[in-house]
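Students often ask what a holo structure prediction actually looks like on paper. The answer is less mysterious than it sounds. You provide the chain, you provide the ligand, and the output is a string of discrete structure tokens encoding the 3D arrangement of the protein together with alpha-D-glucopyranose.
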Amino acid sequence: MSNSSSNVVVPGRRDTGGGSQATPWWKSGVVYQIYPRSFQDSNADGVGDLPGILTRLDYLSDLGVDAIWISPFYPSPMKDFGYDVADYTGVDPLFGTLADFDRLLAAFHGRGLKVIVDWVPNHTSDEHPWFKASRSSRTDPRRDFYVWREGRAGGAPPNNWLSTFGGPAWTLDPPTGQYYLHSFLPEQPDLNWRNPEVRRAMMDTLRFWLDRGVDGFRIDVAHRVMKDPEFRDNPPNVGQGQLHKQLGDFDSQLHLYDSNHRDVHEVYRQIRRLLDAYGSKEPRVAVGEIHIFDLPELMAFYGEEEDELHLPFNFTLLKAPWNAAAVRRTVDAMEAALPKEAWPNWVLGNHDESRVASRLGEEAARAAMLLLLTLRGTPTLYYGDEIGMRDVPVTPEQVMDPWEKRVPGLNLGRDPERSPMPWDSSAHAGFTPPTAHPWLPMAADARERNVAAELRDSGSMLSLTKALLRLRCRHPALHLGSYRPVASAPTEVFAYLREQNEDRVLVALNFAAHPVTLALPEPARALLAGTHAGVRLATKEEIALRAHEGVVIELAR
Ligand code: GLC
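The corresponding structure tokens follow.
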């Protein structure tokens, strides 16, 4: 049996409900992350904005994603590019207006696309009116909105906790003589979630966006919201860091006391109750950014009664060495650890991580896309990965990211993965007008490697991504079905079956840089998609995979 060339599959349905009736959209759908500064500028200031995103609705709808998650666009001094929020219920003028947001939401909903907004509960900006009041005096009613402590003898900070972005997590505020806690920048003071008034005020900010009609929230550093009430010192860490990458001094401690206190779960139960109350017709989703690699600890965020987050982000693929055995182990471990009704999710990139195509190389990035879009669970796709964007290096003078500025030279800066989206071959690749200056450098090859060029090329990463998204949408096995690894696959190959009733699909990925032949566990019916052009099924019983090649095969029913 032979089959036609790569990438091209039968056009998919556009399922405006985002899933079959009984299945909520956030399970069957694919989420696309937009970093708003870098997606599309509409007013020639070199920074992307909400009206810019709206002008790309056709693109996103045609791409075939089901939801967008927009990184913060709230009023902010932009010390951490919006993750320092000065008003949870507005839009920063840099990004537009609340009316622009409402227009965007209505237009996306009109196309059957969901909109998830970012919510940053761990900290505010130091320019938030709550913090301004809080720091104004020890007796201000807002004092306890934040975490204030006396220094230790000799003027040392209250304990040894460190800021993720370098240096101590405490800053002395001389006017009132106490230290305040900041897990990130000093300009990002941590809220005191043990104060019921903080909880109430923050719940109101969720209501504000739910009332406007948003479909869910991506919750920033969800695991860090609750800390040890006794503020004990963290113990030293002698081994490797606990995360998927080395974070410098931050790795010198075990983060036992400054993160993931068990009381955090009550916060998410409360949030879930709120979302459920709003979601009687269309479910609203809670996605959590949780940098925890201990699986039972991560699974706890689904809730003991599965009454917390719908999708605690699963970053385990970022940590896995890129070979068949390690990736399979990672997937199998996640599948085994999941609570009974919990739904998995997968992430390969975001605004904090080096681009997939830079980490793995161009060819392997195609296979990685095939993996992401065919595993069981909701994929989150970072803008630009669909065209194979790579990290765009910045010179020391061009550095924007506060992390790189505070901890230079350790490769922690996140500017390279935030480079503006290249749309076409015009100057600045259509991101911003020729007269404007993009806030971060565009890729050197942006005028050649861009959306327009890739749309014309049936072998491009974009064509592959679109084909996979359509395939995923058409096949219940892919967006809903079970997962079963193929034990007999050669060591270079990760192969798995996805099955939903009559619909049965086999995915096979060759991680090696040489060809491998895979004996199919069952006879093939048709080749549905592949990373390489001109792929053929030699027989119904086996397939020859080229280096880094991935395929999706329909099995006989
Ligand atoms: C999260 C965000 C990151 C931000 C940090 C502090 O990790 O993804 O971009 O800098 O939280 O808010």
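The two ends are 16 Å apart (CA to CA).
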